[in-house]
Design goal:
By secondary structure, the chain is an all-beta fold. The chain has a domain of 71 residues: SH3 type barrels. The protein is built from no helices and 10 strands. A 6-stranded antiparallel β-sheet has the order 6-3-2-1-7-8, with no helix packed on it. The protein has a two-stranded antiparallel ribbon with strand order 4-5. A hairpin with an 8-residue loop joins strand 1 and strand 2. The chain is elongated. The relative contact order is 0.22.
Amino acid sequence: MEKIRKGDEVVVVTGKDKGRRGTVLRRVDDEHVLVEGVNRAKKHVKPNPVKGVAGGIVDKDMPIHISNVALFNPATKKADRVGFKALDDGRKVRVFKSNGDLVNA
């Protein structure tokens, strides 16, 4: 089970975008995620009239390593670590380490 999933709100813990908050758009692989508005790079795009793509310089979100982001806890308004807990009915759920609340997802 993954600690950070698509749709989670995360905070960047280290790097040039430290402190920025965004939503996980997708998991690129086991160790990288794409976060909205974080780790932006300028890419030079060639025009392609067949696809209707105009050329120029485009801002593109690049993948960031999963160790550089932490889940945002709305109760404490801070970044928080994630753990797992088995409920009485047998389900395995994600919980915040600081206060034990369930992660909404």
